[in-house]
């Protein structure tokens, strides 16, 4: 673990550059939805998939299992919530359907054991459920399968 805080690297003088990036991204996402709708069949159904539970919502993380400062774990939780709120707003503004992959992923965050977690933190190889490439705080194969199940269920509910 380093003593450098991710939050401190992204929040300077009260300005959070990740929150600012979300504000810039939202109209771009809405523009993409508008463009898809303009090119698609009249009755197109557009699904927006939110993000799964990457870090536990406990305000402290799981140090030392995952070497993240507790204040950073709480900040990551806040950023993922903001991301999902932004995606929900964009979907609502553009009459698109939000597919919630966050709720079914609760309890499968980076702090859970390898066989059950849906995201990875360190390293480039995941062992869940089979060896594959991994990216920090991104879905592993288990997470991708869980998200796919949520999308398939949403499509089936037409």
Explain this structure to me?
The protein is mainly α. It has one domain: Rossmann fold (3-Layer(aba) Sandwich), CATH 3.40.50. Helices cover 43% and strands 9% of the residues. The chain is built from 4 helices and 6 strands, in the order H-E-E-H-E-H-E-E-E-H. The strands form 3 sheets. It has a two-stranded antiparallel ribbon. It has a two-stranded parallel sheet with strand order 3-4.
- On the 0 to 100 scale, the average pLDDT is 88
Return Rg in Å.
17 Å
Counting structural domains, the number is 1
- Could you state the order of secondary-structure elements as H and E? HEEHEHEEEH
**Total beta strands:** 6
For the record, the CATH class is: Alpha Beta
* CATH fold-level assignment: Rossmann fold
Q: CATH superfamily name?
A: SGNH hydrolase
- Structural class call reads mainly alpha
Shape: globular
Number of helices: 4
**Strand fraction band?**
5-15%
Strand order within the widest sheet?
A: 1-2
Keywords, please?
two-stranded antiparallel sheet, 158 residues
In short:
With 158 residues, the protein is mainly α. The protein has helices at 6-10, 17-39, 70-93, 141-156, and strands at 11-12, 15-16, 47-49, 97-99, 125-126, 132-133. It contains 4 helices and 6 strands.
């Amino acid at each position: 673990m380093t003593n450098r805080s991710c939050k401190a690297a992204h929040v300077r003088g009260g300005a959070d550059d990740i929150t600012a990036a979300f504000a810039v991204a939202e109209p771009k996402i809405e523009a993409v939805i508008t463009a898809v709708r303009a090119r698609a069949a009249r009755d197109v159904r557009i699904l927006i998939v939110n993000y799964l539970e990457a870090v536990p919502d406990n305000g402290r993380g799981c140090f030392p299992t995952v070497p993240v400062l507790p204040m950073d774990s709480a900040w990551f939780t806040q950023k993922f919530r903001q991301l999902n709120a932004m995606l929900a707003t964009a979907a609502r503004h553009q009459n698109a359907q939000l597919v919630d992959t966050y709720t079914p992923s609760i309890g499968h965050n980076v702090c859970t054991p390898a066989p059950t977690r849906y995201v990875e933190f360190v390293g480039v190889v995941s062992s869940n459920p089979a060896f594959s490439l991994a990216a920090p705080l991104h879905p592993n194969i288990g997470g991708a399968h869980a998200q796919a199940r949520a999308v398939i269920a949403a499509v089936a509910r037409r």
